[in-house]
Amino acid sequence: MEKVILIKYGELTTKKGNRNFFISTLTRNIEFMLRSFDVRIEKDRVRMYIYTKKEDMNHVCEILQKVFGLHGIVICYKVETKEEKIEEAVLQLVKETLGHTFKVETKRADKRFPIPSMEYSRKIGGIILKNTDLKVDVHEPDFVVHVEIRPEGTFLYTNEVVGAGGYPVGIQGKGLLMLSGGIDSPVAGYLTLKRGVDLECLYFESPPHTSEEAKNKVLKLASIINEYSGHIKVHIVPFTKLQEAIYKNCPPTYMITIMRRMMYRIAEKVARKRNCKIIVNGESIGQVASQTLESMVVINAVTNMPVIRPVACLDKLEIIELANKIGTYETSILPYEDCCTIFLPKHPVIHPELEKCIQAEAEFDYESLIDECVEKIETISSFDREETEIADLL
Ligand code: ATP
Ligand code: MG
To answer: Residue 213 Cα, ligand 2 centroid: separation in angstroms?
Structure first.
């Protein structure tokens, strides 16, 4: 009896016109994520089968749970469509499944099999009753025995694991995520990947005001969201000189607003260079002074590139819940400073005026400092497990 992983595509099956592109992108992503395993993939328009070594099944399933575009994952038995083979596999399957009550659901996609679905479900139910202590419960069974009779064979399974949902990463092109060490931006990154947007990340550091630990924390966060992508890059912007110039030249109350305008300007330049269509960040309406609507308007005024803020309308507790779910929370709350906090004025302006920003910025040659930031970017593009372990040693 052969075991195989069956994958249900879910949402993408509804997008008829693009289905081939969806499926080929998804296949490519799965192949990439499973590159260190010995796997064979078969697919058709509604589902995919993944064959791998028995001992790797569970591990492969774990990885698949982080691949967007999958809605259901099941480990099933695949047998020849012969009654005695099916019945033998059913008994093996129920033996491996926890629970006391069951029901059987048969889908007969291959009409060469002579017994109608309902009748066959009853027959299989009878065999299970006769050979085990299990009881039937058609309303609230502990598990359902699925019998799918298809032209390529019969598939039998009980528990379906819920997939990550969303669209395959990459079908929407690429965005540039402003990734800080906080709670919000990794969650914003996760939500964006989920909609099929591939990401590169941008991190602003201001050594010696910000530490190596702060940077490693961001890289660790990147490595966690990379489990949903596989090929995240982090561009590290040396922001010190520009930040010091802001500190020297701008009124204290406007420092954060202007610093964020500079971040957006740099993000846009990097995004264009890296072929990213949008900027993504973890801003949430009203959370801090720079995230009031007035602040957002004045900060956003420096760019025409769409800025997507996936957590804009979530409460902090909702963001924390997601951070816990994806595993970034524990890292995010490590107490390292961010460049946003080191020059934090006592009373940042909550209702900034655009004119005042423009005036303050006219006091120094920020454009050449921005160019220097972009030129001196350092890019980290490998988050293999080993490297993640290094970040673990923090
Ligand atoms: P977070 O929890 O994500 O750090 P926050 O609530 O602390 O967000 P801010 O510090 O104002 O809010 O930052 C808002 C957003 O700006 C962040 O979510 C992130 O997208 C971006 N950002 C802030 N600091 C940096 C940084 N050092 N490098 C890159 N992006 C940053
Ligand atoms: Mg922050």
So the answer is: 15
Model confidence, pTM: 0.89
Strands 234-238 and 198-205: parallel
Which ligand minimizes its atom distance to the CA of 288?
1
- From 108, 131, 162, the end of a domain falls on 162
Cα(92) to centroid of ligand 2, in Å?
Answer: 52
90 lines ligand 1 (CB under 6 A): no
- Are 6 and 49 spatial neighbours (Cβ–Cβ below 8 Å)? yes
Nearest-angstrom CA–CA distance, 304 and 306: 6
Which tens digit of pLDDT belongs to each residue from 44-98? 878 899 999 999 999 999 999 999 999 899 999 999 999 999 999 999 999 999 9
What tokens appear for 235 in the block?
């561009």
Same domain, 103 and 226: no
Residue 292 lies in a domain: yes
Asked if residue 324 and residue 185 are part of one domain, the reply reads yes
When divided into structural domains, the chain yields a total of: 2
Say whether both 216 and 105 belong to one domain.
no
- Please work out whether the CB of residue 210 comes within 6 Å of at least one atom of ligand 1: no
Task: Please identify, among 162, 192, 215, the residue that sits at the C-terminal boundary of a domain.
Answer: 162
Determine whether the shortest distance from the Cβ of 184 to ligand 1 is under 6 A.
yes
Task: Give CA torsion, residues 213, 217, 220, 226, to 10 deg.
Answer: -140
| Residues 34 and 123 reside in one and the same domain | yes
Contacts of 109 (CB under 8 A, 6+ apart): 148, 149, 150, 151
Residues 334 and 185 in one domain: yes
Whether ligand 1 lies within 6 angstroms of the CB of 283 is answered as yes
- Domain CATH number, residue 277: 3.40.50.620
Q: Is the CB of 200 under 6 A from ligand 1?
A: no
- Tokens (6 digits) for 391: 């970040």
Which ligand has the nearest atom to the CA of 291? 1
Q: Which residues pair with 109 in a beta bridge?
A: none
Distance 205 CA to ligand 2 centre (A): 12
CA of 337 to the centre of ligand 2 (A): 9
Say yes or no: CB of residue 331 within 6 Å of ligand 1.
no
How does pLDDT run across 85-135, given as a tens digit for each residue? Answer: 999 999 999 999 999 999 999 999 999 999 999 999 999 999 999 999 999
